[in-house]
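Anyone? Bumping this.
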Amino acid sequence: MIHVENLRKEFKKTVKDPGLKGSLKSLFKPKSEKVVAVDNISFKVAEGEILGFIGPNGAGKSTVIKMLTGILTPTSGSCTINGKNPTQNRKSYVKEIGVVFGQRTQLWWDLPLRETYGVLKEIYEVPEDSYKKRMAFLNEVLELDDFISSPVRTLSLGQRMRADIAASLLHSPKVLFLDEPTIGLDVVVKDNIRKAIEHINEQEKTTVILTTHDLADIEQLSKRMVMIDKGTKVFDGSIAGLKSKYGQIRELYFETDVKNAAEVLGYAEHFSLSSDDLSVEPEGNSVKVRFNSSIVPVSDMLSYTLNKINVSDINVKGADIEEIIRRLYEQGVD
Amino acid sequence: MKHIKRALKIHRIFMAQEFKRMMEYKGDFVVGIIGFLLVQLSNLMFLWIVFTQIPNLAGWSIYEVVFIYGLSLIPKGIDHFFFDNLWSIGFFIVRKGDFDKYLTRPINTLFHVLVEKIQIDALGELVMGIALVCVSAPGIEAEWSAFRIIAMIFMIPFVTLIFTGVKTITSSVAFWTKRSGNITFLFYTFSDFARYPATVYNRFVQNVITYIIPFALTSYYPALYIIKGENPLFNLGMPVVAAVVLMGIGIFVWHKGIRAYESAGS
């Protein structure tokens, strides 16, 4: 349904020396350099799929989303939804999509929320009877009733986000783009929003593409994720796939009476592990050791530790997704 | 026809939103109206003092000068009232990445920006312009034929587009430079020259405001025909041509600009 092919975006960045002097110099002798924000990204999304986009800040996630939503014109490459191309026919393309940017709002700030929907109805040419049905549905899923008569400026962030999602769905788009839909929200509200997205996806087969920094969003919503770093796609697959590919990190936790247990044990020297594959965090009576189990098997790690010192409590955990991502962001992907 | 009907409907809806928005803050609205009346009153007094001191200007009688002055305020006021939102494009909409919103909606972006806001302050210029034209017209020795009056009214939408066209072109620059409000301001300032008969300026300024930044076409040249019946082909034709050309360039540059739009980080 969505085809993204060799998408690339370059920006021209003016290079300035620091300070006022640099600014003046740049005014008379402008220097610019080319920055590649997105480099040859391709992927496909099937109808009804929920695709999660992750990547560190500045990786190019938003740039990709903005090209997919027709906001930015790609330097080269293309993206199409059902054969429609945003650079060729923006108006008919955007009728098929709904867009929410978590950090911005498209609601009429000064007016009661209801007024926004009235205007969007006209902009998207939604007929009166389907508008009524649609509002009833969105009301039910996103619980807008409590604040639909309040001016938008008085809404809490969670209410505003629900209102914005409803606004993007009013015209029953086939694809919904969510750029950081849970940013700044508390746990309960996050959960409500995820459930609503899930519900809409199941009910209407709406394809959803979302970016987020909260991996719980992806774990709960999408079977598939695409990871972007420095403008290129570094991973495309399921969360389970990511875990099996990069999830060799284990966390060993134990409590002991031995002082300076970490030094006594000297894991790094004993197993000759580099800092990429090992981190040791002593904390009072307990020690947390993260290590790469593909180099040192868990059994070796356990027997070495137990033989060397007296341990009162011990356990080993598999790395969670957060941990994997943290390592990937820090070290990049090989 | 269908497109025009839809455009008018959307325009009406946006206008209604704007009025509702103003009503949302009633205190501010009332004070704004009082302030607007005070400004107009002081403007009127200033004009009265100036014009009573000069019996004529470069061969133009006091009534004719006031007529041209008033006539220049009408298109300026209409543009200011309906299309003031273009200023925000040059000053912050593009720079802050807020232009994203327009690109994700299925209506023409320029149209959307133009009709989204109204500027109530502009009523000052409009009311003042109409008043000055009405007050000065009886004092002018001209043949007030029906045709000339119709011609005058017919010209107003076109000369309004001269203002809107210039603003559209200069605002579009922001798509490349991120900020172009001051460029718009610079060009817009030239419209002050349009308040007085072009013959009071030297040859160079005359050429600039006739052919380059043609604000003299918004009031002086149409008035030449309306008052003196001179050269209708140039005096009425040229403003129409200029309006179409400027707006055409504006639309072209705007759509080129959209492709260069870079949004802002989020």
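Late reply, but here is one note on the structure posted above: The radius of gyration of chain A is 25 Å.
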